[in-house]
Amino acid sequence: MGERGLVVGLCALVGGCYSGLGAGPDGSPPAAADGADDGADGQGDADDDGGGDGDDGDEPAELGCDETPIEVGVTPLRRLSQQQYNATVLDLLGDSSGPADDFVDDELRSGFPSNESSIAALQLDQYRQAAKALADTAAATRFDEWMPCDRATDDCVAPFIESFGRDAYRRPLTAEESTAYLAMYQEGREEWGAEAAVELVVQTMLMSPHFLYHVEVGAPGDAGDGPVRLTSWEMAARLSYFVWGTMPDATLFDAAASGQLDDAAGIEAQARRLLADERAADMVATFGDHWLGLSHLDEVERDATAFPDWDPALLDAMHLETRTFVEQVVLEGDGRLETLLGASFSYLDPELAAHYGVELGDDPLGRTDLPPGERAGVLTQGAILVSHAYPTETSWVHRGKLVRERFLCGVMPPPPPDIEFENTNDPDRLNNIECRGCHELMDPIGKAFDSYDPTGRFVDLQVEGEVLGSDIGTFESIPELADGLATSEEVRMCMAEQMGQFALSRRLWGADECSRQAILETFAESDYNIRELIVAIATSDAFANLAQESAQ
Amino acid sequence: MKLPRRRMLQGLGASIGTIPLIGSIPSQAAPGDFPKRLLFFYSPNNSIDRWAWTPEGEGSEFALPEALPEMLSPLDDFRDNLLVVGNLVMDTRDKETGPGGHVGMGHQLTGWANIPWPDQQQESEFWGGGISVDQFIGNELGSTPLTLASNPRGTNGGCRISYTGANEPVHPYENPVDAFNAIFGDTDLGVDELQADNARQVRALDRVALELDRLRPNVASDDRAKLDKHVEHLLALKSDLLSFVPADCDPTAPPDVGYGGSSQFPVTSRAHMDVLAQAVACGVTQVGSIQNGNTGGAENYSGTVNWASEGISFDRSQHVVAHDYEQDTGNAAFEADRLELEKFHVSQYAYLLDKLRSIPEGDGTVLDNTLVVWTKGMGRGHSKDRLLYLIAGGTGFPELNPGRFLDRTDVPHNNLLVTIANLMGVQTNSFGDPEICTGAMAL
What we know:
Chain A is mainly alpha-helical.
C-alpha cells in the first residue's frame, strides 16, 4: 500500500500518555509511561481526579478498609441511554417501536453510554414527541386492560395511576403525585374524554425526570457527611439497569417493597436471579460491544480493489460471532476472563467459517473449534480486527491502542498538530523521540496483529510483539498475547474497572478504593469469573451508597 | 425555487417544534426592509494550503480576479457576492491543555478554549467553553437558530459547533425531514386542532416543570444545574407552543429518500440546505448552520468515501485524504484527491448560495440579505494557522463590500466573530475569550 495518513496518528506529546493500571496501589492512574519525560504540558494530569473529590491524600491500604467509615465516589445524574429507553418502553408499554433510535446519539464516556450532559432543546422535544406517540398508541390499545371499570370514577382510575406510576417512576408515587395525576385525568376527561385524558397522564409521566433520569437521591438519612444508602427502589432500578438494561420486573419491585434489598445477601440473591434470566444476554452483549470498541462496526468498508472477495454481509456475521461468544462465555459457560481472551472456540455461521478457513461444527449456535495458534478469544474475532483497520491496510496504531485502552486501561492522547509522517504503519515512529513515548506502547502490539488482514483473515506471518512496561512482556503470536493478557493482573484490574464504569458511570478510583479492593478480591477468589464480578459490583458499597456533598 | 406567499390555513401542520415562527414578510420592499440573516457552513478537516485558494493580486486587500483560484472555482458565479478572508489564526488553541489538532471544532464559533470532560480519555471528550456566535446573535435578534448537520457521527465536542453556553452543546437535526417537520409541521391538523393539542401539551410541560422543581433540592449541586437547564428548555418550549402561528409560506418538504450514512452524505447535506434556505426565506428564523460531518469527516477511519451521487470515490475516508495531502511528499495523486474533495465542499457551499439566490425578495433575492460564512476548525496541518473564511452576502450588507480578498495574517479568529455580529446589526467590541479578542476585524 501507499503512504497513508492517520486518523489518530498519535505521534504524541508524551505528557498525557500512561500505559495502564499497573502501578498505583491506591488505584489512581499510575505515573507516565517509560520515556515519558519530555514535552509534558499538563495534559496528563487531566485524568487524575477519579470520581472522588479531595481524596488524593488517602492511603486506603494503610487505613484498613474494615475499620474506616464507608466512602464512595459520585455518580453523576444521567438520562437513560437509547438502549435503556427502548427496552424500558417495551417492558412498560409493550411498545417495540424503538423510538430512541431517532434520539440524539448517546454520549460515550470512557467508551460506555452515559448521558451526563444537560439536556438540550432538541432532546427535550424528542422526548416529548416520543412520549406523545407512545402514549397515543398505548391509550388506543391498552385502555380496556388498564381501566376495566367505570372510567369516570376515582376508584377506577386511581389504582391505574398508582400502578402505572410505580412502574414508570420505578418507585411508588408520592401522595402529591397520585393526587395531581388523578386531577389531571379527571380534568382532561371532562374536557376531551377518558382516552385523551389517560393519554396525557401517560405522556406526562414519560416526560417526567423520574422516568427520563436515573434518579438516585438516597434514603432520608441521619448520617452527617457520610454516604447515604440508596432507597430499596433505587437499588432495584440500579440493579436491573446494570444487569438487564431495563426497568425492574415485578419480582424485583416486590423485593424492593418487602425490604429484601436492604442487605447485601438480598441484593446478591436478586443479582443472581437477574443474571440467570435471559434478559441478561442482551446487556452482556451490549457491554461487549462497548468494551471492545465495536460501535462503528456498521461503518466498516473494505476497498474492493484490495479485497475483491470481501462481502459486507460478513460484518453482521462477525458482530453476531462476538455477541454470541461474549454472551455464551459470560452467562452460559465458565464465565472466566481467561476464556473470553483465550478460548479455542467461537460461534460462526457458514460464511464466516469459510472466510476464516475453518471447519464449521454442527452445534446449533455454530460453536466451532479454532485452529490452535491461529485464533483465540475475542482479540482474533473478525469484529475487532475489521473495525480496527483501514479500508486498504491494517492499522498498528488502532489495534495497539485498542489493547492499551480497553484491556490495560491506558490513556493514549491524540497526536499533536503539525506532525509529518510517511506511512500509516510507520516503523520510524519508534526512532523518533517525540513519537516514541506513546507509539512504543501501541505499535509493537498492533504490528503483531498483521497476522490478520483488514478483512480478519489469518495470514501466516512470523510476528513478534511486546507489551512494554507491563507484566506481559514479549509474544510471538496473538493467541500468545491473549494468553498473556488473560493472566495479567493489569488486565484483571482493567476488566473490573470497565465493568464498574458500565455499572456506575464513574471510575472506581479515589473515594471508591475500598469498594474496588473488595470487588477485586471477590473477582480473584472466583478465578476471574465475570458473573462473579458483576455480583461483586452489585453488592459493593460503591453500588449501594451515594456520596453526599459536604455541608454547604 | 419559488416560495409563493400564500396564507396557509390548512396543511401546514404541527409546527410545534422549538422554533418560534415569525410573521409574514411583505412581498414588495427594498433591501434593508428585510431581516438580515446569517448562516454558517462548516466542512471538515483542515484548510487546504494557500496555493489552492489565494487569489492573484497585490497587497493585503484587492479585488477578486474574474477567475477564482482552483479550489474556489465552483464560486466563479458568485464572485461579486464573495469576500475571501485569508490567514486568520485560532489563538484560543494556545489555551488548550492537551495536544491534538481537532479541538478547534469547539473553538471556531465560540472563541473559547474547550472544557474537557472529567476523566477525559479520547481527544473529542470535551464541550465548547462558551456561547457560540450563532446563538449569541440569535439571542440578540430574538430568533432561535436552526442547527443542522449531515453525519456528525456522535455526541461529543468533535461533533458539535454550536453552543448556548459553556458545556451546553446545541444538538443538530440530523435528518432533513425531521428538521422540516419541526419547523413547518408534518400533520394534516388544522390550526384550531393544533392549538388545542398544544394547550394539552402545555399541561404536561407544567407538570414536568413542577416535578423538576421538587426534585431539585434533593440532588447534588452539579446535578441541580442540569435540572435548571431542563426547566429552562421546558419553559422555552411552552412559550413556543403557546405562541404558535403557522408560517406564512408554502415550503417544499425534502423527499424522504433516506438520509444519513456516509454514502448519502452529500444528498443529506443538500436537503438540509434546502430546509435552511426556506427557513430563513420564510421568516422561521434569521440564523442557522449546516455542519457537514464532524471534525474529521463523515466516515469512520475504517470506511471509504463512496458518493455515487457526485461521482466521487476514494479508497479511504475524508480524514485520511486530508492527512495524505499534509505529508508534503509531492505525491500528485494525493494532491489531486485532496483538491477534488475540497472543491466538492466548496461546490456544496455554492449550492447554498444558489438556493438563496433563487428565492426572490423585494427587488432582489434572499442572498442579498443573508451572510453565509464558510468556517473550519483547523488550519493547514491541523494547526491553528492560516485559516480560510469565505463570507458571501449582498446589498443588505453595504459594509461587506464583497468581491475582494483580505489577507488578515495573524488576526485572531475571535475578531472575525465580532465583525460578523456587527454586520448582523449586533454591536459588540469583543467575542469569546477577551484575552484573545482584540476587537472587530477590519473589513
